[in-house]
Amino acid sequence: MELTLAAAFASSALLLSNFASIMLASSRLKARRIIPPPAEKQPPVSIIVPSRGVEPFAEEMLDRAFSLDWPRYELIFCVAGAEDPVVKLINAAIARFPKVPARLLVGDDRISANPKLNNCVKGWQAARHDWVILADSNVLMPKDYVQHLMAAWRPDTGLVCSTPIGSRPDGFWAEVECAFLNTLQARWQYAGEALGLGFAQGKSMLWNKPMLDANGGIQALAAEIAEDAAATKLVNGLALRVNLVASPFEQPLGQRTFAEIWSRQARWARLRRVTFPLFFAPEILTGVALPLLLALVAAASAGVSLPTTALCVLAFAYVPECLLAWSKGWYLSPRSVTAMIVRDAMLPAVWARGWLAGAVEWRGNAMTIRTSAITELEEIA
């Protein structure tokens, strides 16, 4: 009897915390809306785009970057090597949009073991304006991209970010990626912000350049292997806040394989484990695997139908999650619940992998992430 009650209580508590995170995230998130171009004079912005390789929808994402509704902005594309196939696409886009100030910078400044950060250094140094956005090349920028970032800046802000929202999945495993990115990772990040725990996300980062330059410049982001973890700690150390945009930006996915998803999730888990171990440890409690197991233990002890118990747990977990995606205009399909179940089945293994040493992969680089946040990189592709 005591085992039944304990298991039932623990399962209910986990399911309620899951539901609470959805409600908290929903309170911070807004459905996609268009912010009109600013009428009054606005500060110019430098947008730095580190690139490597040709990704799905690359040409469309380049065209979007050149079509923003901000009065004055420059684009600085950064590539580590001139032989990268994306160079041809970037140069073609620059030629198509001659009215938008844009440059392609080639070179690799090895200030850290983070390839992306190394790629950004030359762009940061070349930026002409006080407001700088570091934008991953796979962010699908809406016309009001800069407006959304600027609208989230407050007097006590040190950084504005956007978590990626997966869209345009091609195939089931890409839908699993959507389930990871959207109603799990984005949800918990916005729930954390609602509780005053703002964490940076490297997809889109709006910086006030003089502020960061006065505190070590972009080199300060080399303090951790993940630049967003270093950014979070730097901003918090200045008693400032990391804010998230109200309507996060899309990342079109295209095709994905299980191996790609596992590699990415394993890398992120290991990075979170190294940079924020106290926040990473309770991640095992997220997802439906543990509350489902506890509910089934309680049901078996009480002689309650196991299939009925399982269906009730799954419904309580996934109906609110689907409603969150639907209400915010995120990707949702008849296979979404199945994708969420597969995601949650993967979560314990991903969490366990985060505690283990060994190499993980980042775009062809084998990265050995140690607890000291020092890594070794080896080119493997």
From TrEMBL:
Places the protein is found: Membrane
- List the pathway annotation: Lipid metabolism; sphingolipid metabolism; Sphingolipid metabolism
Annotated membrane topology is: Multi-pass membrane protein
Source superkingdom: Bacteria
The protein's enzyme class:
transferase
Q: Quick one: where is this thing mainly located?
A: membrane
Q: What is this protein called?
A: Ceramide glucosyltransferase
